[in-house]
Amino acid sequence: MQQADQSGLRDAGRGGTGEGDVFDLAAEISRRLIARDGEIYPLPDPHRVEAELDLTPPRRSQPMEAVSDRLWRLLERTPNTSGKRYFNQLFAGRDDAALLGELLTVVANNSMYTFKAAGAQILAERALLRHMGSKVGWADCDGAFTPGGSMSNYAAMLVARDAALPGVREHGFDGRPLAMYTSAESHYSIRKNAGMLGLGRDSVRFIEADADGRMRVDALRDALDRDQRAGVTPVMIVATAGTTVQGAFDPIRPIAQVARERGVWLHVDGAFGGTLLLSPKRRHTLDGCELADSFTWDAHKMMGVPLTCSVALFRNRALLQRSLDESATYLFQRDDDDYNPGVRSLQCGRRNDALKLWTAWQRHGDEGYEARVERQFALADHAVRVIEADPQLTLVKRPQSINVCFEVAGADARQVSDLLDREGRLKVSHGAVDGRPTIRLVCANPDLSTADIDEFFAEIRWAASQLRRV
Amino acid sequence: MQQADQSGLRDAGRGGTGEGDVFDLAAEISRRLIARDGEIYPLPDPHRVEAELDLTPPRRSQPMEAVSDRLWRLLERTPNTSGKRYFNQLFAGRDDAALLGELLTVVANNSMYTFKAAGAQILAERALLRHMGSKVGWADCDGAFTPGGSMSNYAAMLVARDAALPGVREHGFDGRPLAMYTSAESHYSIRKNAGMLGLGRDSVRFIEADADGRMRVDALRDALDRDQRAGVTPVMIVATAGTTVQGAFDPIRPIAQVARERGVWLHVDGAFGGTLLLSPKRRHTLDGCELADSFTWDAHKMMGVPLTCSVALFRNRALLQRSLDESATYLFQRDDDDYNPGVRSLQCGRRNDALKLWTAWQRHGDEGYEARVERQFALADHAVRVIEADPQLTLVKRPQSINVCFEVAGADARQVSDLLDREGRLKVSHGAVDGRPTIRLVCANPDLSTADIDEFFAEIRWAASQLRRV
Known about the structure:
- Two copies of one chain form a homodimer.
- Chain A is built from 15 helices and twelve strands.
- By secondary structure, chain A is of the alpha/beta class.
- A seven-stranded mixed beta sheet of chain A has the order 2-8-7-6-5-3-4, sandwiched between helices.
């Protein structure tokens, strides 16, 4: 990328540093990372790791070799999310096709506000939004890629707010009391977003869940009645398809009926569970989702696409743009705004989060995702069998999806999780179900075998035995 | 990544597709992309491009070869932002070190909520926030990486809102009239964010700019006085360091004095111009920025890091977390929340936007960025000399930074821009300065030579002659 210059400008400050091929270097380090797929780095406390590394940007430039050494030391001290020992989050593993799409997204580096700036990448994004909308059950729909499930929920809640309270976007709130309804098991972004949107965190009514972690529809009706009597304006209902800890699915059809009766917006947070729409066998878990007004779906969770890849989908085409459009003539040039997603985005400059999913979907097809979901469920089923066969392990709830929550006799869930993390054995999260501390195994990585799940439980037993000894 | 499986699960649905090396394939396609650095694809209208491509996800899986062919057809029809013919946005070019950091970010795929989930990557992010804060003039500061300059402004405006109106996050707005102040030349995200935050788009007072596009401090005082007399509560002042069209810098020190007198939050939107803090010679352009309460700075613009890389920085350490924290025990585990940036983020799951900048800064050092800024300014100076030497070109304003706004005699700015785009000659934006249509040349790519700038103007003259002929 280096070139002659007639102005006498110095070479320093150029971006193309001309030292060998950056792709060779990236591939070499990537292969070293992947060679560690069986391991996880033991993480001592952050202060110690900080002391081992020299992180502050230097005053002077350094040769690329020194930089790549430092980069490796840092990556070495990073949890390996794609290997056999990562069960900590709702994502895991690595998908080659998605990775290819994402690496090329980075190299192409287009900003997704306009067709002028991003060309055909805009069209791939549109095709995906339509395809995902069709899986929700909408022949025509609107939507946006956002930087994560919380932000997709945010976009949906923004549009719901503006639909329930016309004029708020222009003139602000008038002070009337407001309410929104979600299950006690819903994601923390619901209340956080209510705070950001000016609805107030207090306006969130956490509706009791039943024994399976699903929103109780009778309790929802009661809460709506109570607020109606008190003169409180209902703004939206948020149902969850796949709760974070238990993986529970709220009963969407009856909730949608309540929403329709009351004229209240229904958002479905399918960040985690939306992917079940790709399995004809499991779609019934989200029965009625086509009756919702908006839908969140993260492809970086069960679909295995690199972080982040989240969409907010809307049944009605006009509303998203109404909540987000600002005229900016220096930006929105030449084309029909239908092809300028910047007028329907939370952001202005925006990286392309769609191309990785587009590439992966081209590779796997709908059928590949169907098979992927079945693999994830089969691994979870296997985990349940292991737990049921072992008297020292107890299933806390029968799983509704790929989260398996369990206890170990005589060992605290948190302590088990912490010990395995500290020692670099594996990463798994702990949580609480009905106030009971549990270990949460998420079977998100379809490249694992049942033997890997067996190995997971061997580590759990090891940790428990260590803790009992203390 | 393929492995034996004892459960009889089918191979379909696996992520590791086991067909050769995805890194070799990515490198091969990347080199093809880079070989086009002298060209830009002629973009006909989106409907035609859409018809040329088969974009909908298929039902069945396809071999990787077919997928990479489709991917290439799509990338071919994408504007080349890193080559010699891209002047359309506030970013351009390609930085090898930043690219290396970003490619490895993708491969590592860690989510940046907790130290448990992202390890040393959290520490690199912290080191950068501190370093960038020190450049603003803050020995200690708080901050967050956000998905773009608009969202950094959003985070700052959220915190400003919650500082001015205690209780809003919890209880919502009480309906009292509010006002915020920004220049008529400021970025469109200010008003857009006011709508999202519940402040109301109407609450934004657009303060007149002077002949150089800088906010008039006397007009700001007048607007504050008028609102005070009318009983309107002032929420924040937003100064701009580097406006989008002209690249103008508001006079921060006198604005900060007004903000301090009135006890109003001052945010500086340095998304574009913040990088001038890295040039000791040009830092005076942002004189007084250390008196602000918050600061937006995009590294994906003048610093040449892949999209997106934006920070919101805060002088006071406690406020960001107060506006964003939600307890979520299943997530925030084990460590001091000081090392869990999820409690200070707009998002929950979050990709690492910091590692590319960390890698690039390690490579170039502070001095490299100083030189980079000088190269960008030298190219803009050269462009000014070309314009002044050509009677058919007129400078619309003397540039304050690397934006050069000019007119061509006898040819409409928009038509020139559109023709060059349609024909695949180059990408350049048009805008309006004081109501006059102008072409906006942004000299953001330090790898260009003065000969490339000469070539840019040759194309402008060609387009103008074509249009005059019609």
